[in-house]
Amino acid sequence: MAVLKALLAAALALPALSSRLTPRQSTSVSPLFCTEAAYPDGDPYGQPYGTGWCWALTSELGTCYNWEDFPAAEDGPLGSNLTYVFIPGNFECDLYKTSDCTGKSYSARRGDNDLSNAMFGPTDFNKQVESWLCVSS
């Protein structure tokens, strides 16, 4: 009986041990959205960075968001005025011109995405993004 209790206790502890050894997968990402992009020394071929009014909007993976989900951003200069997106980590966010993540999209990849410069993003999305959906890449 004592052996059976020991085996049962070990079996119950196994899931707890394995959950500590398995790295947790992130369920959200906080892309940095900005109203403007700038370049070091004004060089349009350099690495862009976000300027103007910026906000990191935490987004659950696989969920469609629009400006109404972030009232402070919507009411501020960022709503419908998106020019630059920085995607951290191993994520990407699909940007849409509609408010429900349908229609033509642009996949903003990890790193810098300047929607005003064709080298770093599609200029037809500049200041026209209405919704986004982020996923792990």
What is the structure about, briefly put?
It contains 2 helices and 10 strands; from the N terminus they run αβββββαβββββ. It is α+β, with helices and mostly antiparallel strands.
Descriptive account of the structure:
18% of the residues lie in helices and 34% in strands. It has helices spanning 2-21, 71-75; strands at 28-29, 32-38, 49-56, 59-60, 64-66, 84-87, 91-96, 105-108, 111-114, 131-136. The strands form 3 sheets. The chain has a 4-stranded antiparallel sheet with strand order 3-2-6-9, with no helix packed on it. A 4-stranded antiparallel sheet has the order 5-10-7-8, with no helix packed on it. A hairpin with an 8-residue loop joins β7 and β8. 25% of the residues are buried.
Keywords, separated by commas or semicolons:
137 residues, 2 helices, alpha+beta, disordered N terminus, four-stranded antiparallel sheet
Write the layout of secondary structure elements.
Layout: H1 2-21, E1 28-29, E2 32-38, E3 49-56, E4 59-60, E5 64-66, H2 71-75, E6 84-87, E7 91-96, E8 105-108, E9 111-114, E10 131-136
Antiparallel strand pairs: 1-4, 2-3, 2-6, 5-10, 6-9, 7-8, 7-10
The largest pleated sheet is described as: 4 strands, antiparallel
Given the C-alpha coordinates, what overall shape results? globular
| Order of secondary-structure elements | HEEEEEHEEEEE
Class of secondary structure makeup: alpha+beta
Spatial separation of the terminal alpha carbons: 50 Å
The low-confidence runs, each spanning 5 or more residues with pLDDT under 50, are 3-20
Tell me the number of helical segments per DSSP (H or I, 4 or more residues long). 2
Strands, count = 10
Rg from alpha-carbon coordinates: 21 Å
> In order across it, which strands form the biggest sheet?
3-2-6-9
Helix content: 10-25%
Mean pLDDT: 82
Strand content: 25-35%
